[in-house]
C-alpha cells in the first residue's frame, strides 16, 4: 500500500536513482567501531545529487528529488557524519575539505526557504511542501543539536581560506564559497515552524533560544561581527546576506528587555503576568454572565414589551439576566451586515511571526552580540547596504529594503535601551560618561533621510504596505533617537540634533506624507495601524516641541506655485494647446524656477489641523477599538490624540458621532471596560467625561447636531457646528489674464481677424457682440461731437477762430467709458486673455494704467480715436466674423498667439548664475577653448557645428488644469505582476549563483586552445574590416608604395613575419606603457589619440600633408603603432615656426623630446620601437631581440586647440 502511494507522488525511476546514489555515498562501518565510512566515489556522488536537484527539481519546477532525500534522511544519517570526519586538526586535508564543501552545496538547496507562489504552484507543490517544511525543521534540529561536531563552525572553516584572501585576489569560486556558507547560516536561522502546523518533536530544540545558543557556542556571532565590521573593505556583495541572518535572529524580540538587569526583568515579567491574569479574569467575568445553566438544553424565548407598546421576540437564556442584557440582545440583531467580499490577502507581516520569548541565557548572549555589533559593525554594514539599495545592485531583492528599515529601527531602539541602562548604572556606581551617538551616525545622515522619504513615497504609491510599515517604524525610531540626542545635555549632540530636526522638518513633503498615510488607512492590518498612529503621534509631539523652541522655523513648499497657476487657469477658462504651454514655460524658465520652491514660516496650529479630518479620526478610533489588547503606551497615544482634537484644536464635534461616543462609553462603563488598575484608566475616564459633557452642551446649542451625530463630518460642517457660522474665506488679490502677443509681424486687420477667430473658435460670440456694441456707441458719440464741433467752428468768425486756436481751445473729445453689461462680462474683461487682446487692438485701455489692475478697474476708449477709426475697426470685426481666417496645416487662430514673455529677473550683485562666464566661453574663437577629452566623435561635432545645441529638457505633459488620471486597480496589479516576475528572476539567478562549479579549480587546455583560436579569428576579421594587410594600414590613393612604407616604418627588403613583431610588441608592452605615462606627465599639451575606427581618415590626412606644400603630419596609433617623423621645413609663418621650435626644435637629432616607441622595424633593419629617453630601458628585456636601441629622429609636435589638430592647410 505504501509503495503504491509512493509511486503516486514521485516517479519510481527518480526514486530509484536517488536511493542508489544515497546508498553509494557511504554508511556505518562495522569494522571501524561504528564510525561512518565514505564510499569510493563519495565526492562524485555528492556532485551527482547536487546536479539532480539543480537540473531536475529547479529546471522542471518540481520537488521530487528533495522529497526523496527527505524520506531517505540523508542529512541526519549521512551528511552530518561526513562533516564530522573533517576534524579541526585536518584543515590541510584538501580531499576532506572538498567533501565538506560538497556536503554544504547539497544542504543549502535542501534548507532553502520554500515560498508559496500561487501563480507558479502546481499540484506537485501542494503534495510536497507540507512534507518538506517538516523535513526542514528536522534538518535544523539535527544541525544545531549535533553533538559529534560543531556543524556551523565547520561551515565557517570551509569559507575561511577564501575569507582570508584580500578581496582583490579572490576568484569567482572564492566569492561563491563565502556566499554559499552565508546562505547556509541564513537558511538555518530562517527555518521556523509553519503557521498552523504542530511540530511533533521538542520545540525547544528548534526555538530561537536554541538557535542563539548554537550561534554563540560555535562562534558564529564572531564571524558575523568580523564580516560586518569589514563590510566595504574586504566584503561587498555579502552585505544583504549578513543582514538577513541578523534579521532572523532579532525579529520580534523586544530590544528593551536585552539591556535590563535580572531584577528589573523579573519585575517586568511579573507585571506582564499580573496584567495577563487580570485580562483573563475580566474575560471570564464577561463570559460568566452568559454562561449556560444546567437547563441549557431547554430552549428559551421571551417577549419584551417596548416603549411603543410593540412586542419583540428574543431567544436565548442571556435575555433573562437583566434589562441591559435584553437590550444588547435586541441591538445585536440590528447590526448591519454588509455583503461579503472576496477574502483579502492577510496584510500582517508574515515574515515576522508572533512575538518571541527567549530564555535568560539566550537573552544575555544576544544582548552581548547586539552590544558588540553596535560598537563595531553597525555603521559599516548599514551604510553599505543603503548604498546597495540605492543603486539597485543585482544581489538585492525586493524584501531586503523592508528588512533594512526594520533592523535600523530595531537597533536604534536597542541603542536607546542600552543608553538608559548605562545611565542608570552610571548614576548608581561611578558616574561614567555615556557613550556618544557616533556608533549609529550612519543612519542619521542626509542620505539616509532621502532614502527613507523615497521609500515612504514609493511604498505608499505602490501600496506596498509591508515596506511602508517598516519605513514608518524606522522613521519613528529616528525621531525618538534624535530627540534623545537633543535632551542629552551634551552641547555637541544638541547641535547635531537641532540640525537633524531642522532638515527633517524643512521639507513640507514629509509633513504631507505623514498626514496622508494616517488619513488613508483602510484595512491594512493592525501592524500597519500601530505603525502609522505611532508615527503620527511622535511626529506631532516632537514637531510641536521643536517649533516652540524655534519660533522662526521655515519649511519649503514645492506645490504652492503650481496650485496657484492651476487655479488661475481654471478661473480664466484657459484651455490652450500643449505646444503653447510648453512654449510659455520655456519663455519663463527663471521665473518658474523661483516659484516651484518657496519657503514660508511654519505654523504648527495650521499643520496640526491636518490631523483633525474624519479620516484621521477614524484611524485612531479603529486603533482604540483594540483597547483591551493595548498596552499603556498605546493607550496613551490614542488618549493624547483625542485630547488634541477636542481641546487643543477646538474640534470636538469631529468626535460627536454615535459609534465613537458608544466606544468611549464602553471603555469606561461598558460590559468590558478598561482595567481600573491601569495607569491610564483615570485619564481616559476624565477625557470621556469631558467629551460627553461637551457633546450634551453642543446638542443644546446646535439642534442640527441631532442629525449630524449619525454621520461623519466634513470640514465645513464641523466648523459650522463648532462656531455656529460658516467659515469666511478671504480671497487674495487676483491677477489679470496673461498678456498675449502674435508670433510674427502682422498688419492691424490681420491681427483683429485672428483675435476674432479665437473668440469664434471658443464659442464666445457674446463677447464679440458686446465689443461691437461698445464700438458703435462710441462711434455715435464721436460722430455727434465732431458734427457739433464743425458747426461751432463754421459759426465762429475767422478772427475769433484764430484767437481761440492760439489760446489752446480743446478740440479733442472726452474719453468714452467701456461699461460691462453683467458680472460675467466684468470677470471676462479681467481674466479672459483673448478678449483683452481684442479690446487693446480696438484701442481700449485702462483709465489708470499706473495702478494695479483689479476686477473693478475702469476701461475707456481714449478721445484721440476719431469716429472714422472706430467705424473702420467695427467693419474689420464684422468682416472677420463672417469670413474667419484660415491657416495651413489645420492650425487654429489661437496657434498664432503666444504669451508675452515676462521681464527678466533683476539679479542681485552677489547672484552669480554663471551666465557671464557662459557668454565668455561661447564667444567664438576669442574665448577660452578647453580640450574635450578622448572622445574624438564629440570633438568632430564641435568642429563642424561650432557651439553645441542647447540641452533639451523633458517636461511633463499637462492638459490645461486637469490632474492626471490615477491608475486603475488593473494597471496597478499589472505593474505588481511585472515587478514580481522581475524579482523572481533575480532570486533564481541568486540561488543559481550559490553553487560552486567543481571545475573552477581545474584547468582545461582544450578550452584555452579554442579561446585563443576564436580570439585570433576575431582579430583577423577586424583587420579585414579596416582593410589591413599583414596587420598594416592600407596604402591611400595617390601615394607611392615605397613612400607609404617609409612613412609607416617598414623596409622594402623586410620580409620578417608580422607574428615576430607582434610577439616583440607584447614583450615590450609594459615598459612602453610606463615610458608613455612618464612622457604624458611631462608634456603640457597632450598628443591626440585616435581609435581604430578613425585610422583611415587620419592616414589619408597625413598622406595629403606629406606633399611639399605642407609639412608631414605625424601619426600616433592607440595600442597599435606610435610613429616618429623626421623634421621637415615649414612654410606657414612665424607663429608656426615658434611653435615648431618650442615643441622640438629644428634639429632632427634632438634628444629632449618625448620618448616614443615604434612597433615596426625602421629602415635600417633594427627595431624602431626602442625608448629614446636618456634612461630608457625595455629593449634589453627581450631575450629573442638583443639589438641596441637606436634613437629615432625627433618629430614635431602637433599644434592642438580644444582637442583639434591645427594644420597649416586648415589656416589656408
From TrEMBL:
Disordered: where is this region? Answer: 326-356, 564-597, 795-818, 917-1011, 1023-1191
PANTHER family named among the record's database cross-references: PROTEIN TIMELESS HOMOLOG, TIMEOUT/TIMELESS-2
GO BP annotations listed: DNA repair; DNA replication checkpoint signaling; meiotic cell cycle; replication fork arrest
Which compartment or compartments is the protein found in? Nucleus
Report if keyword Nucleus is assigned: yes
Q: What is the similarity comment for this entry?
A: Belongs to the timeless family.
Q: Where is the composition biased (Basic residues)?
A: 977-991
Spell out the Polar residues composition-biased ranges.
Answer: 804-815, 1122-1132
Which stretches make up the Timeless N-terminal domain?
36-304
Keyword Cell cycle listed? The answer is yes
Question: What keywords sit in the KW lines?
Answer: Cell cycle, DNA replication inhibitor, Meiosis, Nucleus
One GO CC term on file: replication fork protection complex
Pfam families (alphabetical): TIMELESS
Specify the protein name. Topoisomerase 1-associated factor 1
Please provide, alphabetically and separated by semicolons, the GO molecular function terms listed in this UniProt record. DNA binding
Biased region (Acidic residues) positions are 575-588, 999-1008, 1079-1099
Amino acid at each position: 500500500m505504501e509503495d503504491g502511494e509512493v509511486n503516486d507522488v514521485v516517479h519510481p525511476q527518480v526514486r530509484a536513482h536517488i536511493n542508489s546514489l544515497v546508498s553509494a555515498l557511504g554508511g556505518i562501518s562495522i569494522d571501524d567501531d561504528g564510525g561512518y565510512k565514505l564510499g569510493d566515489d563519495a565526492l562524485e556522488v555528492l556532485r551527482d545529487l547536487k546536479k539532480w536537484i539543480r537540473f531536475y527539481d529547479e529546471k522542471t519546477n518540481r520537488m521530487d528529488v528533495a522529497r526523496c532525500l527527505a524520506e531517505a534522511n540523508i542529512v541526519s544519517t549521512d551528511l552530518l557524519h561526513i562533516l564530522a570526519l573533517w576534524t579541526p586538526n585536518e584543515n590541510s586535508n584538501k580531499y576532506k575539505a572538498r567533501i565538506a564543501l560538497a556536503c554544504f552545496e547539497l544542504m543549502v538547496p535542501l534548507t532553502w526557504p520554500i515560498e508559496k507562489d500561487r501563480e507558479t504552484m502546481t499540484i506537485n507543490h501542494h503534495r510536497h511542501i507540507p512534507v518538506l517544511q517538516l523535513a526542514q525543521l528536522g534538518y535544523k534540529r539535527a544541525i544545531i543539536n549535533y553533538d559529534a561536531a560543531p556543524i556551523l563552525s565547520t561551515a565557517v572553516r570551509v569559507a575561511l581560506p577564501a575569507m582570508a584572501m584580500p578581496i582583490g585576489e579572490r576568484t569567482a569560486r572564492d566569492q561563491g564559497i563565502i556566499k554559499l556558507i552565508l546562505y547556509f547560516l541564513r537558511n538555518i536561522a530562517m527555518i521556523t515552524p509553519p503557521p498552523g502546523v504542530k511540530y511533533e518533536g521538542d520545540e525547544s530544540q528548534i526555538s530561537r533560544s536554541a538557535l542563539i545558543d548554537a550561534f554563540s557556542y560555535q562562534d558564529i556571532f564572531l564571524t558575523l561581527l568580523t564580516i560586518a565590521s569589514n563590510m566595504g573593505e574586504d566584503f561587498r556583495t555579502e552585505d544583504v546576506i549578513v543582514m538577513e541572518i541578523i534579521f532572523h535572529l532579532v525579529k520580534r524580540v523586544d530590544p528593551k528587555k536585552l539591556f535590563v538587569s535580572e531584577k528589573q526583568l523579573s519585575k517586568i515579567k511579573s507585571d506582564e503576568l499580573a496584567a495577563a491574569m487580570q485580562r483573563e479574569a475580566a474575560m471570564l467575568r464577561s463570559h460568566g454572565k452568559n454562561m449556560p445553566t444546567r437547563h441549557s438544553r431547554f430552549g428559551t424565548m421571551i417577549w419584551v414589551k417596548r416603549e411603543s407598546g410593540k412586542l419583540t421576540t428574543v431567544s436565548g437564556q442571556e435575555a433573562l439576566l437583566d434589562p441591559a442584557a435584553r437590550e444588547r440582545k435586541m441591538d445585536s440583531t440590528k447590526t448591519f451586515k454588509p455583503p461579503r467580499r472576496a477574502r483579502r490577502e492577510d496584510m500582517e507581516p508574515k515574515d515576522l511571526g508572533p512575538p518571541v520569548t527567549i530564555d535568560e541565557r539566550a537573552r544575555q548572549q544576544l544582548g552581548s552580540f547586539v552590544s558588540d555589533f553596535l560598537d563595531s559593525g553597525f555603521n559599516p554594514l548599514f551604510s553599505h547596504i543603503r548604498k546597495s539599495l540605492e543603486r539597485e545592485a543585482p544581489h538585492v531583492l525586493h524584501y531586503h529594503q523592508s528588512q533594512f528599515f526594520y533592523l535600523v529601527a530595531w537597533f536604534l531602539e536597542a541603542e536607546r535601551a542600552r543608553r538608559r541602562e548605562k545611565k542608570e548604572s552610571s548614576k548608581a556606581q561611578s558616574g561614567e560618561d555615556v557613550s556618544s551617538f557616533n556608533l549609529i551616525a550612519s543612519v542619521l545622515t542626509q542620505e539616509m533621510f532621502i532614502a527613507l522619504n523615497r521609500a515612504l513615497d514609493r511604498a505608499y504609491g505602490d501600496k506596498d504596505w509591508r515596506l511602508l510599515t517598516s519605513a514608518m517604524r524606522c522613521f519613528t525610531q529616528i525621531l525618538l533617537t534624535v530627540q534623545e540626542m537633543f535632551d542629552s545635555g551634551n552641547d555637541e549632540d544638541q547641535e547635531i540634533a537641532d540640525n537633524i530636526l531642522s532638515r527633517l522638518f524643512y521639507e513640507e513633503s514629509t509633513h504631507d506624507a505623514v498626514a496622508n498615510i494616517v488619513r488613508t488607512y483602510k484595512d491594512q492590518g493592525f501592524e500597519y495601524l500601530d505603525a502609522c498612529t505611532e508615527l503620527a503621534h511622535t511626529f506631532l509631539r516632537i514637531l510641536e516641541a521643536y517649533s516652540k523652541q524655534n519660533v522662526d522655523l521655515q519649511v519649503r513648499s514645492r506645490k504652492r506655485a503650481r496650485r496657484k497657476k492651476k487655479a488661475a487657469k481654471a478661473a480664466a477658462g484657459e484651455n490652450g494647446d500643449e505646444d503653447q504651454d510648453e512654449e510659455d514655460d520655456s519663455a519663463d524658465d527663471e521665473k518658474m524656477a523661483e516659484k516651484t520652491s518657496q519657503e514660508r514660516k511654519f505654523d504648527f496650529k495650521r499643520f496640526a489641523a491636518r490631523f483633525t479630518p474624519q479620516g484621521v479620526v477614524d484611524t485612531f478610533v479603529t486603533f482604540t477599538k483594540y483597547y483591551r489588547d493595548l498596552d499603556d503606551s498605546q493607550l496613551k497615544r490614542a488618549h493624547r490624540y483625542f485630547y488634541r482634537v477636542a481641546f487643543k484644536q477646538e474640534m470636538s464635534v469631529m468626535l460627536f458621532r454615535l459609534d465613537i461616543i458608544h466606544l468611549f462609553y464602553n471603555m469606561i462603563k461598558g460590559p468590558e471596560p478598561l482595567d481600573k488598575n491601569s495607569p491610564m484608566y483615570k485619564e481616559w475616564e476624565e477625557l470621556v467625561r469631558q467629551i460627553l459633557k461637551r457633546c450634551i452642551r453642543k446638542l443644546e446649542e446646535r439642534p442640527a447636531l441631532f442629525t449630524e451625530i449619525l454621520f461623519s463630518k466634513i470640514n465645513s460642517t464641523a466648523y459650522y457646528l463648532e462656531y455656529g457660522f460658516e467659515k469666511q474665506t478671504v480671497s487674495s488679490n487676483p491677477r489679470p489674464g496673461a498678456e498675449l502677443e502674435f508670433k510674427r509681424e502682422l498688419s492691424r486687420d490681420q491681427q483683429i481677424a485672428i483675435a476674432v477667430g479665437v473668440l469664434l473658435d471658443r464659442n464666445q460670440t457674446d463677447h464679440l457682440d458686446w465689443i461691437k456694441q461698445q464700438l458703435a456707441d462710441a462711434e455715435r458719440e464721436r460722430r455727434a461731437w465732431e458734427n457739433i464741433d464743425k458747426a461751432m467752428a463754421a459759426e465762429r468768425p475767422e478772427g475769433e477762430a484764430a484767437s481761440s486756436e492760439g489760446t489752446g481751445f480743446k478740440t479733442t473729445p472726452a474719453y468714452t467709458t467701456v461699461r460691462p453689461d453683467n458680472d460675467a462680462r466684468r470677470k471676462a474683461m479681467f481674466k479672459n486673455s483673448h478678449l483683452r487682446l481684442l479690446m487693446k487692438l480696438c484701442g481700449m485701455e485702462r483709465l489708470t494704467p499706473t495702478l494695479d489692475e483689479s476686477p473693478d478697474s475702469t476701461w475707456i476708449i481714449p478721445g484721440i480715436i476719431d469716429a472714422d477709426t472706430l467705424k473702420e475697426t467695427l467693419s474689420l470685426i464684422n468682416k472677420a466674423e463672417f469670413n474667419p481666417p484660415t491657416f495651413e496645416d489645420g492650425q487654429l487662430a489661437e496657434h498664432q498667439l503666444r504669451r508675452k514673455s515676462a521681464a527678466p529677473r533683476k539679479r542681485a550683485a552677489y547672484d552669480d548664475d554663471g551666465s557671464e562666464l557662459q557668454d565668455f566661453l561661447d564667444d567664438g574663437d576669442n574665448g577660452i577653448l578647453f580640450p574635450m577629452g578622448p572622445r574624438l566623435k564629440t570633438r568632430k561635432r564641435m568642429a563642424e557645428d561650432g557651439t553645441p545645441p542647447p540641452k533639451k529638457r523633458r517636461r511633463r505633459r499637462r492638459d490645461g488644469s486637469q490632474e492626471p488620471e490615477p491608475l486603475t486597480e488593473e494597471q496597478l496589479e499589472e505593474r505588481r505582476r511585472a515587478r514580481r516576475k522581475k524579482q523572481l528572476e533575480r532570486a533564481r539567478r541568486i540561488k543559481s549563483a550559490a553553487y560552486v562549479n567543481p571545475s573552477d579549480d581545474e584547468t582545461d587546455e582544450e578550452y584555452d586552445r579554442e579561446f585563443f583560436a576564436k580570439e585570433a579569428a576575431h582579430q583577423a576579421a577586424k583587420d579585414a574590416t579596416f582593410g589591413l594587410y599583414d596587420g598594416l594600414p592600407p596604402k591611400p590613393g595617390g601615394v607611392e608604395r615605397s613612400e607609404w612604407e617609409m612613412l609607416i616604418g617598414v623596409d622594402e627588403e623586410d620580409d620578417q613575419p608580422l607574428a615576430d613583431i607582434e610577439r616583440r610588441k607584447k614583450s615590450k608592452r609594459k615598459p612602453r606603457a610606463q615610458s608613455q605615462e612618464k612622457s604624458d606627465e611631462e608634456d603640457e599639451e597632450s598628443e591626440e589619440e585616435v581609435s581604430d575606427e578613425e585610422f583611415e581618415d587620419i592616414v589619408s590626412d597625413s598622406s595629403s600633408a606629406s606633399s611639399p606644400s605642407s609639412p608631414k603630419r605625424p601619426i600616433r596609433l592607440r595600442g597599435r603603432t606610435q610613429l616618429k617623423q623626421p623634421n621637415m621645413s615649414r612654410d606657414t609663418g612665424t607663429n608656426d615656426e615658434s611653435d615648431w621650435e618650442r615643441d622640438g626644435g629644428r634639429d632632427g637629432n634632438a634628444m629632449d623630446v618625448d620618448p616614443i616607441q615604434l612597433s615596426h622595424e625602421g629602415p635600417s633593419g633594427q627595431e624602431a620601437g626602442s625608448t629614446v629617453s636618456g634612461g630608457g630601458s625595455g629593449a634589453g628585456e627581450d631575450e629573442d631581440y638583443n639589438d641596441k636601441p637606436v634613437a629615432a629622429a625627433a618629430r614635431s609636435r602637433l599644434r592642438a586647440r580644444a582637442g583639434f589638430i591645427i594644420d597649416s592647410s586648415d589656416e589656408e
